[in-house]
Amino acid sequence: MDPDPAGFGQSGYGVVVCQRLEKDVLTAVHNASKDARLLVLVVGSRGKPCSDMWTFMAAGASDVLLWQTDPPSGEQVQARLQRWKHVDELAGSELVTGSLVGASQSWRALVRQVVEIAAYSQGPVLIVGESGTGKELISRLIHTLDARRSKGDLVIVDCTTISMELSGSEFFGHERGAFTGAVAPRDGAFTLANGGTLFLDEIGELPLPLQAQLLRVIQEGKFKRVGANNWQHTQFRLIAATNRNLEASIAAGTFRADLYHRIAGWVCRTPSLRDRMDDVLLLARHFQAEFNRDSGCEGFDETVCQYLISREYPGNVRDLRRLVARLCHRHAGPGPITLGDVPVDERPESGCPISSWRSESFEQAIRRAVDQGVGLKEIGQAAEDLAIRIALEHEHRSVQRAADRLGVTPRTLQLRRAAHAH
Ligand SMILES: Nc1ncnc2c1ncn2[C@@H]1O[C@H](COP(=O)(O)OP(=O)(O)OP(=O)(O)O)[C@@H](O)[C@H]1O
């Protein structure tokens, strides 16, 4: 048995073999799981009670495995490690990181989940999250990485724009003469998506009668065009997105439970930007490079960085992107973007917003932690961890300057980093 997690950091994957549930093994697994880059597989002895295995999962293990043979076969361990490696390679590929920006734990976990679903399953995916959190981007990624390597198109239907009168035609297509104005036959979304992906955006806004229309085609892959007698067949990956809580809509009687179960083969949740504030500067720099491609502009100066991370973004990443666009458009000449580039109506009334860092979202995060029973030590560590990461990011990974900024010695900063990594 090797409960020492020190090697996890190098490999990215840790395999812990243990005979029984031991506290130090549990602690090692728990500490390692705090780093999103580490995945831990616990191999336990055959016949151990299931509850032990759940305890390891609760501590943060990515998987647990009971010995089936004596000595334990390496094949099962190998299969899992190979899967994790492939998923990590995909998640870290240029294809993914070039368009989906983020290094926070919640974002990385989402991207891993999404690429695994795309590459290893064909089931329907429901993406849930606030407006502007990247749901459409995720759907495009799933289409690109689809396991079937399909040649078909990605067809996007915005459910907020589907009218009751035209819904049949939009979804199923129509025959010539099916209704007044149907002067020519037309393919609907289910035909166009054949062999590809159908993305139903804002599915939570679909009126109840239209929800009923979709049941058969989603379940059986067959439908009739408006005005036709024969069935047509179609096969596609279904992705739906919503910013509504569909379980609550079902309880309120505004969303059909049977449709929910057909669309929610997998459920992915995009985090709000306030839940991944450590991604703000990364995203802002990505957008700035996009808008100022040829201008010679050198990013944001220090005060603008502080402004960006102290602001609130009710519209999430979309809000941030638009703000960066405004900054870039106002900026003239080489050199970094400065506070003068912040539009007048967007400047904080009280001047420098630093004093307001204990904002509502800060209180909400702490409130959630306390509600979930997270201890004071872990809350403090998480805050420290975040502060260190942000300082290093601001200082382009210079430990000396990050330590100066945080008012500690470089050695203290390194020690804290090391302590939190385990
Ligand atoms: N992780 C990300 N990396 C880069 N850009 C992002 C990311 N997340 C969102 N964006 C950008 O933010 C904007 C909104 O993203 P998107 O349309 O995918 O959000 P959404 O959740 O589908 O929004 P809505 O619910 O309002 O339709 C887009 O310009 C997108 O490029």
From TrEMBL:
<keyword id="KW-0547">Nucleotide-binding</keyword>
<dbReference type="Pfam" id="PF00158">
    <property type="entry name" value="Sigma54_activat"/>
</dbReference>
<keyword id="KW-0010">Activator</keyword>
<dbReference type="InterPro" id="IPR058031">
    <property type="entry name" value="AAA_lid_NorR"/>
</dbReference>
<dbReference type="InterPro" id="IPR025662">
    <property type="entry name" value="Sigma_54_int_dom_ATP-bd_1"/>
</dbReference>
<dbReference type="Pfam" id="PF25601">
    <property type="entry name" value="AAA_lid_14"/>
</dbReference>
<dbReference type="InterPro" id="IPR025943">
    <property type="entry name" value="Sigma_54_int_dom_ATP-bd_2"/>
</dbReference>
<dbReference type="InterPro" id="IPR002078">
    <property type="entry name" value="Sigma_54_int"/>
</dbReference>
<dbReference type="GO" id="GO:0005524">
    <property type="term" value="F:ATP binding"/>
</dbReference>
<feature type="domain" description="Sigma-54 factor interaction">
    <location>
        <begin position="100"/>
        <end position="329"/>
    </location>
</feature>
<protein>
    <submittedName>
        <fullName>Sigma-54-dependent Fis family transcriptional regulator</fullName>
    </submittedName>
</protein>
<dbReference type="InterPro" id="IPR027417">
    <property type="entry name" value="P-loop_NTPase"/>
</dbReference>
<dbReference type="GO" id="GO:0000160">
    <property type="term" value="P:phosphorelay signal transduction system"/>
</dbReference>
<keyword id="KW-0902">Two-component regulatory system</keyword>
<dbReference type="GO" id="GO:0006355">
    <property type="term" value="P:regulation of DNA-templated transcription"/>
</dbReference>
<dbReference type="InterPro" id="IPR003593">
    <property type="entry name" value="AAA+_ATPase"/>
</dbReference>
<keyword id="KW-0067">ATP-binding</keyword>
